[in-house]
Amino acid sequence: QVQLVESGGGLVQAGGSLRLSCLVSGRTLSTYRMGWFRQAPGKERQSVATITWSAGRTFYADSMKGRFTISRDNAKNTVYLQMNSLKSEDTAVYYCAARSEDATNWLYWGQGTQVTVSS
User: Over the chain, what is the mean pLDDT?
Assistant: First the structure.
């Protein structure tokens, strides 16, 4: 089992920054991919960025490139999402997720953290 706990969300003005954290526990994740997703009210959940735990290879959704940065700290078992130049449309619940690199489904999810960007 893998447990994921997000933190770092909150209220920020447009143009501001936030860093989300996802603390991972429960098992070794060397063969896992970690991801950040978000879901705004009335909209489908969308991928923000992913990173492989071992090599740190990253992938970003096209609309997230340039403003968002995903990273991980293996020693702290934590994945981060640095969000800069935030816009009102970034308002959403942000979720951390994990899956095996050879799987297609995201098996483990955190409870989510709310990010609200005021214009």
Answer: 94
How is residue 43 written in tokens? Answer: 């909209």
CA Rg value for the chain? 13
CB atoms within 10 A of CB 76: 11
For residue 36, which of 76, 106, 110, 95 has the smallest C-alpha distance? Answer: 95
Q: Compute CA distances 61 → 12, 46, 48, whole Å.
A: 22, 9, 6
CB contact set of 99 (below 8 Å; sequence gap of 6+): 32, 33, 35, 105, 106, 107, 108
Full DSSP string of 39-76 = E-TTS--EEEEEEETTT--EEE-GGGTTTEEEEEEGGG
- Give the pLDDT confidence of 53-63 residue by residue, as tens digits: 998 999 999 98
Looking at the predicted structure, is the pLDDT value of residue 29 above 80?
A: no
